[in-house]
TrEMBL record:
Pfam families: HTH_1, LysR_substrate
Keywords: DNA-binding, Transcription, Transcription regulation
Protein name: LysR family transcriptional regulator ArgP
Domain HTH lysR-type: 2-58
Record-stated family: Belongs to the LysR transcriptional regulatory family.
NCBIfam families in alphabetical order: argP (TIGR03298), PRK03635.1 (NF002964), PRK13348.1 (NF009888)
Length: 295
């Protein structure tokens, strides 16, 4: 059997990035934390933590962390439902969310949930193609992802579509694309890209015969600043129509690639556990997504 005091110490070290902070959270000495981790590693028979700065869980440690989070959620249900006791302490639930969802419809998802429950969310940001890996690695209990297929031990709920349009200010379009969205102009006009893992621009420009690296790029890893830079005429880029509905209506931003858009289908993935907190999260994500995302 696993000693859950040791497992709690392990989780605290990983979640807080080090032994000293874990000791503060657990109200014990740093040496006591280290001892619990050593005993747990001896019990498992494998290294669980890479002693770096910050510390990182090994592959085995990541699996164990996911196990601990599942047990914690089930333990909450035991007290709140089976024994009829009310748990006043908060429970932190880590979720993986892509930046564009966080900038648009996610706040509405969380508003009612977080004001009526004892849930605290620990939001882990990642591209909609990458959040799936967070769930697979046990970093989160659920995620918003563009991956449609459920992984083993998890369930999937379709949320809806996020539509991206290629936008710029009218002045930017007139300056850089007076003859339309042609290859010569694309090779000169600065484009906005979220980060170096974002393939949306490469996919779009490949259709125009432009290869990756052939166009000047601003890297802007913040959804709100991304839109702000576009509105200031500093570049053009792919933006969720949901995020710029007013700007499109008043023509502060205009589509510059005629009849071109990218549709990203989003899914909610979570552990296939019938715990109250996971069910509440799933219900909230599904309910609000229906109000904001295209079907």
């Amino acid at each position: 059997m696993i000693d859950y005091k040791q497992l709690e110490a392990f989780a605290a070290v990983v979640e807080n990035g080090g032994f000293e902070k874990a000791a503060t959270v657990l109200h014990i000495t740093q040496s006591a934390v280290s001892q619990r981790i050593r005993l747990l590693e001896d019990r498992i028979g494998a290294m669980l933590i890479v002693r770096s700065t910050p510390v990182q869980p090994t592959a085995m440690g990541q699996k164990l962390l996911g196990h601990y989070k599942q047990v914690s959620l089930m333990e909450q249900d035991l007290f709140e439902d089976t024994l009829g006791k009310t748990v006043e302490e908060y429970i932190t639930v880590p979720v993986g969310i892509n930046a564009d969802s966080l900038a648009t419809w996610i706040p509405d998802t969380l508003q009612e949930l977080l004001t009526t429950t004892n849930i605290l969310v620990d939001i882990r940001l990642g591209d909609q193609d990458k959040t799936h890996d967070m769930l697979k690695n046990g970093e989160v209990v659920g995620c918003v992802s563009s991956q449609p297929g459920p992984m083993q031990g998890c369930k999937t709920v379709y949320l809806g579509k996020m539509i991206y349009v290629c936008c710029a200010t009218p002045d930017f379009a007139e300056k850089w694309f007076p003859d339309g969205f042609i290859p010569d102009a694309v090779r000169k006009a600065p484009i906005l890209t979220y980060d170096r893992t974002d393939e949306m621009n490469n996919e779009m420009l490949t259709r125009c015969g432009i290869r990756a690296g052939e166009f000047p790029t601003h890297y802007v890893p913040d959804s709100h600043m991304f839109v702000d830079m576009c509105k200031k005429g500093l570049g053009y880029g792919m933006i969720p129509s949901l995020q710029i509905e007013e700007e499109l209506r008043n023509k502060q931003l205009i589509p510059i690639v005629e009849k071109y858009s990218v549709t990203v289908r989003l899914y909610w993935h979570c552990w296939n556990l019938q715990t109250r907190h996971i069910m509440m999260l799933t219900d909230a994500f599904e309910k609000v997504a229906k109000l904001h995302l295209s079907r």
